[in-house]
Structure formats: structure tokens, C-alpha cells
Predict the structure.
Amino acid sequence: MTNDNASRNLASYVPGLVSVIMIFLDGEPFIDEAIGSVIEQRYPHWELLLVDDGSRDGSTGTAQRFAAEQQGRIHYLEHSGHENCGMSASRNLGLRHARGEFVVFLDADDIWLPENLKRQVAVMRGEPHAALVYGPLHFWYGWTGDPADAGRDFVCPMGGEYGKLIPPPRMLLRQLQERDGLPAHGSALIRRAVIDEVGGPEDEFCGLYEDEVFFTKIALSKPVYVTRESDHLYRQHPDSCCARAAVTGEYDFNPAVPNRSRERYLRWLAGYLDAIGDSHPEIRRALARELSPYDHPRLAAVRRAARRWRASAWQRVLQAARLLLPSPVWRVLASAVRSARTS
């Protein structure tokens, strides 16, 4: 397991400085806008580390140009030989060079609204026990300028637990049960001391779930703070890592359908709990439920088929009832069925 702590001690980190780590691989379409959203922050104390994961397009030149224009504040980094090493290894490269008291990972296809860092640093100052602060995730389709795409934008609720310190491991438990408790990279401002304690991203996770693995290590044992504001715009486009994985079948966004990437994360979590000697019975129970479809695939397939049959059967019953029963009676029956199916 990765524990990629920096060699210097915490006293050498610059108080109040936010180290923004932006990894990229062929990020030419959006990286200019992402960097611009950092430069336009109303919180002035930041540094930007641009970590090139082996790009072959114009994003390398764009990053080098910004680093040359703002020397000492924007830095260009790459792996030896301009190698492609994966997301986690690239984030860890940025961490080894980061000097800030706080760290945040902003992906090269996302942007921040101008108040983002100012709000988050203020929360961290007011909540000294918070390991990280994040807002609900804004899924951003409207970047295209098409009103139809803008109508698809939505904000993930994160359980509605806003404006307070949330003890561990509540948000991790919600992530396992509801899949919306933990932040995405770009949404979370993290204390560097916490990263040095729990370890950085796990190098073995090069793509899918690398963010969830990292935030799991923090949320398992540290309190977190969730704001109401959503100042991170999570761009939705067909060339993103998740979108490509959905097309290839590597990842399925339907929670009812098992997928191997999620199984790998769940089994990593089981091993991690064993390695650190942490019982957390509520996490163990949730983990067992989530792993059940992988441990017992035939039983899971039967259950999925039964759910589909029940849904289809109820649909046929309601269609017949609508034809045969008076409208008020049909509405009562339909409401009762919906309540029974969601309870």
C-alpha cells in the first residue's frame, strides 16, 4: 500500500498556502480553462503543480507555458522519460513537491468558481478538527452552452448533512450504502498533515476508484465537513475516464449491476481494514452486503431476475387496473404500489 509521505516535516509547510495539484493526460481541450479557474481564485495564497502523465497532445506545451509565465507559483512536473504512470502515481508526484498547509486535486477538465478556495480555507480555519472540507458535487453538462445540456445539470445531495462536522465513518458508510457520501477530486480541500498521516493515493489504482480509495482512508478515521456551496463544476463529457469506462463496460453506473472495478475497490477496503486492524462493525456489515453479489454471483443473478419480474408484474397489474377501475380507486392503488416498492 502506498504511504507516500513527503520527506520534510510539517513545520516546513507554508501556513495558509494551498497546493493545487492538477494531473493531466492529453488534456488539451479543457486544461487552459481549468488553470484559468485557479488563477481567478479570490483566495490569493496558492501554488499550482501541473503534473504531466505522459501527454502526447498540446496540453504539455500549455502547461509549460503557464509555468514559464508564472515562475515560482505555477510548476510543471513530469515522470522520468515523460512516462505514463497513472492517476495515483501522478498525484503522488505532485504531493512530493507540494509546499502548502492544504492540498487539493483539481482535474484538468473541471473548473472552480472564484470563491471556492476562499470559502474552504475559511471553514478549515473555523473547524480545526476537520480533516477535509467539501461541497456537494455539481455534475456539469451545461459547459457546452446548449440549453438542453444545461437542463441536465444536477447537484449530488451528499445526504443533506451540511454545515457541520461529521464524525467518522458516517460519510464512508453512506458512500457504501448510497454511493454519494465521499467527494470527488476537485471538491475537497485537505489538510496536508492528514495526508501525511494516512498516506497518499494508492499507486495500484491507476484509474477508476482511485479517488474513492484515497478519500476512504481519510473518512474512515477522521471527521469531515460538508458545505452547502457547490463551487466545483465536474465536467461531463464523453472522453472522461468514467465515460470511457462506461462505454467499454468496465464500469456500470447502475448500483444494481455488479462491476469489476467496484469489486476491486471493495476488496481493497476489506484488505485495508485488516491491515490497519480496524474493526468498524458497521463498515464491515455494509462491505459484506456490497460484496455479496461478487461472492455469490448466481444467487445475485436470481435476485436481479426476481426484481425485474416483480417490477414487470406490478406494471401489468397497474395497466389492467387503470382500464378496469374508477380513476380515484386506481390512483389509490398506484400510490400504494409505489410506496410498497420504495419502502
Q: What stands out?
A: The mean pLDDT is 86. The chain is about 45% helix and 15% strand. The radius of gyration is 22 Å.
